[in-house]
Amino acid sequence: MTAKPNILFIMADQLRADYLACNGHPSIRTPHIDALAARGINFTRAYCQAPVCGPSRMSFYTGRYAASHGASYNNVPLRVDERTLGDHLRPHGYRVALVGKTHMKRDDEGMAHLGISPDSSRGVLVSQCGFEPFERDDGLHPDQSADPDLRYNQYLRCQGYDSRNPWHDYANSAEDDDGNILSGWHMRHCHRPIRVREEHSETAYTTNRAMDFIDEAGDTPWCLHLSYIKPHWPYMAPAPYHNMYGQEDIPHAIRSEQERVAPHPVVDAFMQHSESREFARDEVRQRVIPTYMGLITQLDDHIGRLMGFLEERGQLDNTLIVVTSDHGDYLGDHWLGEKELFHESSARIPMIVVDPRHEADATRGTRDERLVEAIDLVPTFIDAASGNSKALDHRLEGRSLQPVVNGQSGEWRTHAFSESDYAWRPARLALQLPPDQAKAYMVTDGRWKYIHYEQHRPQLFDLQNDPEELHDLVPDKAHDEVCRRMEATLYDWCRERKLRVTVSNQRIESNTDTAHQRGYLFGIW
Amino acid sequence: MTAKPNILFIMADQLRADYLACNGHPSIRTPHIDALAARGINFTRAYCQAPVCGPSRMSFYTGRYAASHGASYNNVPLRVDERTLGDHLRPHGYRVALVGKTHMKRDDEGMAHLGISPDSSRGVLVSQCGFEPFERDDGLHPDQSADPDLRYNQYLRCQGYDSRNPWHDYANSAEDDDGNILSGWHMRHCHRPIRVREEHSETAYTTNRAMDFIDEAGDTPWCLHLSYIKPHWPYMAPAPYHNMYGQEDIPHAIRSEQERVAPHPVVDAFMQHSESREFARDEVRQRVIPTYMGLITQLDDHIGRLMGFLEERGQLDNTLIVVTSDHGDYLGDHWLGEKELFHESSARIPMIVVDPRHEADATRGTRDERLVEAIDLVPTFIDAASGNSKALDHRLEGRSLQPVVNGQSGEWRTHAFSESDYAWRPARLALQLPPDQAKAYMVTDGRWKYIHYEQHRPQLFDLQNDPEELHDLVPDKAHDEVCRRMEATLYDWCRERKLRVTVSNQRIESNTDTAHQRGYLFGIW
């Protein structure tokens, strides 16, 4: 292990924490990810900072809460002067690249305002949230906006899949018995295999491209964000993963009839979304979840392939590996589909950290229940790269996991937070809220989970006695003291956001009380 | 009056709201400012967003609270992608210029990071918070960092004041009877006249430069930020203003012995600062305040001169005029010097708005007690320039004063806010706080003023029954319900900060629930 380990930052999209065998799933097969957990530390209480792709990822990449970086929903551009993982690691000699998805939206207006050309090298980095876009592919290409020259589309065409948008027509579509094309956008089709061979599927291709990057990087220290689109919808898998699991493999839906009787108004509004209404139906769960699981096992197989590749090249012992996801997937739990709210199915994420260095031996193969947040990765990576994340504590809101990974005791955070901005969703219209009031905040101390909704009453769940979060404790008013405490914690958190980003705390320390020294002699007789 | 009135945005530095005759000062002479109040509307409950130059001004220029723009103290650079008055008015055809002080600190690191050259035209605007620096002069030039080529220094030299730093040696120094130079940095000298003739003093020079700009601008609509350094320290005035007022003209110090008996810990720490210890002494007040008043009357005279100039050029009826300041000056009130805390002496500011248009006739010559904030000026100016400040309500946190000026009724804000970040001050060290915990927040509803200090108990004052703020009501616990309400208001305010700045609310409205339309067919069977 050199002083500058490589960093392999693997993200799956919409992968629930509990859909891994090592996290207790009763039927799924994820032997390679399980092996990583056995080689590293498995954080079982990790939360994303926003249970939706864009803001969650911007938090992963900036090390800052969504309230701080401001890109609070998909397609909200990240401010041009936010700093990202690439900005932090590049000065330490790292090549910091992306293969796959980021859901970064470029701030065109901000760039134009500052005269930054999107084509300049700086402009490209600003546009790609600091990553060198070795292969950027956000993985969702409706015909309306599909780029026929998307590299994966070109690749598929080279393999003989002829179409303007083979991503859709082949890699995310199936065929009926008469050869008619069945779009993967429709969940009723997702028990059928896609029209490309497994080795040409997105997960396989993305893994290949990661290998290309690693080969190209050679001896330069690298940080690769390998960011798979699957198991995100379209829920379509190649053979043999499309029917690897059956209905007997599906866990029961985490929901109760009571949840529909007197739902919280915001949750109720989400229950009316089409994705929720569909996933509330058993037929949909039975059609989708086996494929969702197959996509995860496929992903696992390719992670295994990638591990073999790293081992072959002698890099396995020199690479810090993280496996995580940007958020979960309700899959019908709580009568909801998709994500965006804060039940464990949606807000909790897998977080496995494999640090091959000797110092981490103490925690190898352990599970850790401490509260971990997505924003912890940036400081962790900075420290791994021999940087000093502490010196950036005027910007970074996460905590380096290094001491935890190294088995050092010490105080740790007491609460984790997540945020939702649902201004773009029908729920906002149903609730008749203006765009800046469609917000919600989650705070948990591990035992209690409290959710503050703007304009509506909060929710409280007891994760110890009600781990399935079926009983909202707010209406019975028996836990008002807990609610008050959690609300106070959230208030403290609001005031602690790091928005004074242009000057470091170190510099403040060294400049405190120096005005007189600098000749500004005020208050002198 | 054309559709595009000129905007004359006059700021004095450290001018207390109550040191104007039109605001009730018993002895000061400010006839020209009084005349403006008689021609316009005088807001008697206006607050700065931070009672210290830098952050207050950044709020004035961005229309955003200090918590939002992040430049929370002097010399904290404003983020390069914040938008300022110039950015907002220039698209409407305005020339937006600065004559005088901004206390803007350039974000060198941010500019370098984005490859913006400070010498480029964009770089200059980013460096000068969006103003064309027709004449920038922050007005404080200790020998340690004085620029001999400062334009005012050159000017003074041309007038025969020979020195490397004539700003200090002549314009802010006096002489004793033997001709020895007495530095204006020392308050003991401030009863003596400065060593330049009145017409060469800073206030006169700054006014001249404003006239130069107005002449140069010609028929182009302009917004001039005329930003005087005085009556800010060094408290040094030219003859005859240096001894125009005597001890009999000084208002009594607003303070009580009780305030020193059991002070709030943070206030106590500020009381130990040298400026507070000095201003607690009657000798200091008696020496400084007559000169402070003389500087204000001098300023008033030059504002009169400028009004004459505008009238002569036929521009008086075509120019929206604002007179305000960035914060007050304790001058020994509450046993404090300088500013930074939230008593009326420090946080309240003059705010006179003269709108020559017919629509404003209804309020001409009136006093208005509604709560006004510094951040209200940017939207007011945008609307005056035929812009639409509402369309910028994802960034702007102030409210356009236009409807109030036009005498329209309607709901108005219920609370005003101000913030303090005293990380750089000795008080932080005395209180043993880390740099990010030296923060305080003021909220007032006009009747009550509540102050939240991080790590210390709050304060509460009853502005109706105790307008001098001598009795902190928190220790006696008789007003816990008021405190709870104010704290809840502050919590709401924290969550309402506008940090999702890269997308407008209008765009959110038009993009709500459009994913399916754009081909992202999730949740479809």
UniProtKB/TrEMBL annotation, chains A, B:
InterPro entries: Alkaline_phosphatase_core_sf, Sulfatase_N. This is Arylsulfatase A-like enzyme. GO terms for cellular component: cytoplasm. Residues 5-385 form the Sulfatase N-terminal domain. SUPFAM superfamilies: Alkaline phosphatase-like. It comes from Halomonas organivorans. It comes from the Bacteria. GO terms for molecular function: metal ion binding; sulfuric ester hydrolase activity.
